[in-house]
Amino acid sequence: MNFRARIAAATRVLLGAKARYEGAFPSRNRTTVPAALTYPRVDSTAMVRAELQRKSRYFERNNGFYNRAVDLFEQYVVGQGLHLFPATANEPWNQRALAYWEAWQPFADIASRQHWTTLQGLIARAWFVDGEVFLLKTYGSTGNPRVQLIEAHRCKTPAGVDTAGTMVHDGVEVDENGRPVAYWFETDDWKSASLAPRTSSQRVDADSVVHVFEPSRPGQLRGLPFCYPVLNVLHDLDDLETFEMLAAKANASTTTIVKTAAGEVSDEDLARGTVTASDDTERTAYYRDVFGGTERVLKHGDDAQQFAGERPSERTAAYWDYLLNKFCVGVGIPRELILPTSMQGTSQRAMLDVAAAWFRVRCGVLADHCGRIYEHVISYGIERDGQLRGAPGDWRAFDFVPPKGPDVDVGRNTDAAIKEFKAGMTTLQELYGQKGQQWRRAITQRATEAAFVEEAARAAGVEPARVLMLDPNEIASNNANQGSQP
After folding, report:
1. For residue 419, is pLDDT > 70?
2. Containing H/E element for 462?
3. What tens digit of pLDDT does each residue of 302-319 get?
């Protein structure tokens, strides 16, 4: 291509060649986007992350919509606790491991007496609000495995550490591949009575730390609150409500306006004696008498009007609704769950199905992290305690059952679950696990109850169906169908 052809090609680009990516070119009709292509640790520095987490914690404490979103996250991601079940090929060992795992759970926390299921709720809330939480695999005074929860603000690069030499980024020490090898945590001095006790830093090997977070970019070392894309939207919604309330209170404080030749006088000014008109004393005494009783008498030429406050307006309320919808979209939780209205129709079921899938994905991420705690406990039973000796090679394998998702039609979904179970598309472990129950115990309980009902009915000379208040016709139909099967 000669020089003239190159000039012509450049001119076509500058003047607007077709089939180009318009989003890559500036325009006078749009603002400049303040963004650059760089590494995650440069975009979300320690100061940026801390500020996002600080604001997120504030709104969790003081904003009802946000607190409701956190509650929903805990409810549908953890529920009554994620139930992990050993899933090796050795079923007898699975039963021993499950009993060992469940016996450990009441004593999980090294810093309190909280049950493991309670800790999971705290983990889910901290994950949503801060975007991350740290679980330290440790041991108690008795030598048994324990877990310590560490909040995000305690993971920081200590002062005086040569970050260039050790490659410590925002409290995370990495190797030459960018893989975390250690975490630096600020320790708390419980002996100090000060609200700001002296602290020191402790380096903990990465193998002893479970960093619960969900990175959104490759190479991301720290988590960010779930609300980070709409944090300013939440802030605006909070500010608008505050300012609108101040305006409404100002409107409510003025109930009557008196128009005179000297200007406008409110009944509040009259009651306080703050009228600045020339006939202040006379009119103040006069209108105090007038508005103090049931009769309303005005002087000739004066006019009194009742002040009707109309705050917030319909437009303001509609804008609030828009901001709330924008916030819900940003955090990933449907508005109908945060602020329920009508929950009927196919569109609502589709929306809840999408929400249930979103919660299951988060549940799967948390289950992977909880699996490392499961390994911490089971390995102790294998290597130190001795109660789980003879473990198979795949002893780390486990299954988990997510909590039951949001439901708009309980009867319809229950019928669908029964049909899926009869068709072999689901298991008892899944059905009972969604209710926080262990399926073997549930089946044993059902068998025990059935035997008791039959014995009580036989002793009373009645049919067991009458004891259970079942429909005899339906029972007869089921027996007939079972008898006709080959």
Report:
1. yes
2. none
3. 666 665 667 778 888 899
- Residue pair 131/53 in contact by the 8 Å Cβ criterion: yes
Question: Is residue 85 within 8 Å of 399, Cβ to Cβ?
Answer: yes
User: Does an H or E element contain 426, and which?
Assistant: none
Look at residues 73, 203, 185, 178 and name the one whose alpha carbon lies nearest to residue 131. Answer: 73
Residue type, 80: Q
Q: Which residue has the tokens 């004066």?
A: 302
Indicate the DSSP class of residue 44.
Answer: S
Instruction: For 91-150, give the DSSP string.
Output: HHHHHHHHHHHHHHGGG-BSSS---HHHHHHHHHHHHHHHS-EEEEEEE-TTS-EEEEEE
Between the CA atoms of 272, 276, 281 and 283, what dihedral angle is there, to the nearest 10 degrees?
A: -90
Q: Are the CB atoms for 122 and 130 separated by under 8 Å?
A: no
Token pair belonging to 266:
């409110």
Q: Give 374-383 pLDDT, tens digit per residue.
A: 999 999 999 9
Rounded to 5 degrees, φ, ψ at 29 are -85, 0
166 CB-near residues (< 8 Å, 6+ apart): 173
Whole-angstrom distance, CA of residue 23 vs CA of residue 10:
19
How many other CB atoms sit within 10 Å of the CB of residue 454? Answer: 13
Distance, in Å, from the CA atom of 274 to the CA atom of 287, rounded to the nearest integer, reads 13
For residue 325, which amino acid is it? N
pTM of the model as a whole:
0.76
